[in-house]
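Troubleshooting entry. Yesterday's outputs looked truncated, so today I'm pasting the complete records for two proteins to confirm everything comes through intact. If either block looks cut off, that's the bug. Protein one:
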Amino acid sequence: MPSALPDGEPVPADGALPGSALAGAAARPLGFYLHVPYCATRCGYCDFNTYTATELRGTGGVLASRDNYADTLAHEIRLARKVLGDDPREVRTVFVGGGTPTLLAAGDLVRMLGVIREEFGLAPDAEITTEANPETVDPAYLATLREGGFNRISFGMQSARPHVLRILDRTHTPGRPEACVAEARAAGFEHVNLDLIYGTPGESDDDWRASLEAALGAGPDHVSAYALIVEEGTQLARRIRRGEVPMTDDDVHADRYLIAEETLSGAGFEWYEVSNWATSEAGRCLHNELYWRGADWWGAGPGAHSHVGGVRWWNVKHPGAYAATLADGRSPGAGREILSDEDRRVERVLLELRLREGVPLSLLKEQGLAASRRALADGLLQEGPYEEGRAALTLRGRLLADAVVRDLVD
């Protein structure tokens, strides 16, 4: 089931932000994340805030229905306009995620984007992305999205091997994600991503290579490859605990990452974040870069998180409660925190170190600087960027990124 929300102070009923959050806002990019919490089935490894029809039955009534979800989400987008007041920024990125956004009608996704366009305006070069389940789209659906303003799409491929997909409880047919890339290109999508997962119990090195080769053969300009994390409370965690499937260890994850880097770089892809590769700078996911660089984004939808000017907040999780709160004219925010300067410094180090460009050494304190010198000597940081005042990971450093960043934030 979905993980718990963090603790925090109450969000004002009208969603108002402190004046400090809006100070200097015009100089920061603004993005929107739109969360669609519906899935046809729950994947065994998933702990995202998503719900199947069975899980919603009797708990939200008509308010939790996906049939009127676009209208419900529009209420929060209009609330965002009121909260941000006369903020002059046009929206730079929109990312529709889930869940399975493409369980909604294509016209619903276009309508949600239309409300953002009406309330805020979209930058001329705005990046507009939706995630998609390969089995829930067809050429007509994709054409509607493209005509409605979407210019980037991300398909959940995970693996090309049927036995790996079965362990993950993924329902799409092997080969369907690759076909979707061709259909998206035909519809006019400029940028297409395929999401892959490595380290699934029962997956071999050859299985992983086959998945990478299948993804590359489809012709995307972006690939995301994530190590499987087995979250407590998921069906997969229970299966591992019962001994039905084996747990994959960190050494296997490292080997698979090296295979990914070798395969993707050999095909002309370049890493720009530890788990993300693109064929060009234009192919990067600008929306995710807003997160990694601490910019501003409004997360609309049940359980969605937002950040504006050092204030982070999160919405109530259940679709029924979310819709009911908005219907009452109140903010769906469940809690928030106001980040201190030190909080923001630490987050910059945590997130920017994962980027190819790295993090400025000026953000490190004395102990962190000492740790960075040790990491440089150990071959975990690149010498050239270090001499220019930045801590940037080597390939070996990427394998140990979590450990490196723990040392540098001290």
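Protein two, checking that the full record survives here as well:
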Amino acid sequence: MNPQQPTAPIVIRNAYVVTMDAARTEHRRGYVVVDGSRITEVGAGEPAGYDRATVVDGSGCVVTPGLINTHHHLYQWITRGLAVDHTLFEWLTTLYPVWAGIDADAVHVAAKGALAHLAKTGCTTSTDHHYVVPRDGGDVFGAEIAAAAEVGIRFHPCRGSMDLGTSAGGLPPDHIVEDLDAILDGSRQAVEQWHDPSFDSMLRIALAPCSPFSVTTELLRRSAVLARDLGVRLHTHLAETLDEQEFCLERFGCNPVQYMESLGWTGPDVWYAHAVHLDDRDIGVLAASGTGAAHCPTSNGRLGAGIARAADLYAAGVPLGLGVDGAASNESCCMLEEAHHAALFARARSGPRAMTVRQSLELATIGGARVLGRENELGSVEVGKLADLALWRIDTLAHSGITDPVAAIVLGSQPPLELLLINGREVVRRDEVLTVDEDTVAGEVAAAHRALVAKAG
């Protein structure tokens, strides 16, 4: 386990290379050279001068940038399969009492399982939005950060929070919300302890009050000030359901985007999860301010929240990525499935030309990098960028004979993952995670699930 950083360059040859560079270059028979944590060469044909390199034969495979997950709730990996036929508000009120029982040990197990699965399905960078912080739960943020380091994935955890309990008109139970000052202190501490702004950072922190119906106006306002003082990004759920729209209209006299705009929650350092129920003005606000969005089509479908106007957001120039969302509202948590559903849902809403397969793959790669402010480091296969790469096998029964390799991976079933490099390090080989033992983690997840459900009664 835990393979070391390779000392010799890695050359992937004879592969179909989808670069996702500005020109959207594709090489039908191409190569990629990785030296340390960086991509040093990309091109068509054969590389030269690498006699001592580790050579990977990419025949029958497609190279893409590693996939970037812009919204998740890792702790939910141990609460999958509950409230499967509920609306969002029903789902939340059912699960809050279960989530109230989590602690650092449970979060560590859940995060390790969820992140290992993401890596196995081609994801090289993942966010997390952790907003349940039990008073006696221990260091839940440190627990998930440790899990990410074990798996070897590039990680952007968001220090979430809730301070609006049911007694004050919010949705979460009072016993799982935090005090405003404790949240701000905890947020500052998380950034000061863990945030790494360097080019090749494996760990960056964002601040992420949960949603308009679970946090106070003061928390949103002060979190925005704090994040900008600390130089980190801001994230929250927004416009996910019509219930939320009605909540904001009744409580604040405006829709969710107008509310967030009034609090300073727009700009290139902000991204919203879901953004399903937006009007033309809302989309214009996001586009003009550079505010990003994490499109989560599978979760939105699972909860019946609606179909986001992803094609309109894309056309308007809004920074747009994909997210698997919390595992309790998307039991599969597969980034290629999100690309698949992004294309299909956009077409179901707006016609067969609403989103191409390459545009949906763009959302999963360079689009996600743009949402996280890392488009100069991640999201495309280009010289000088970090070596986060996925090599997909498309010559097996499920994919052989599909004319277009990009259509094969976006519209076909999940292809076998021949190789996954994160920061130049081999994390997955031939569908096997190398950094943690999958069977051991699966057993730990099952035990943690049983214990947490039993604890909730």
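Both blocks look complete. Sanity check on protein two: The mean pLDDT is 96.
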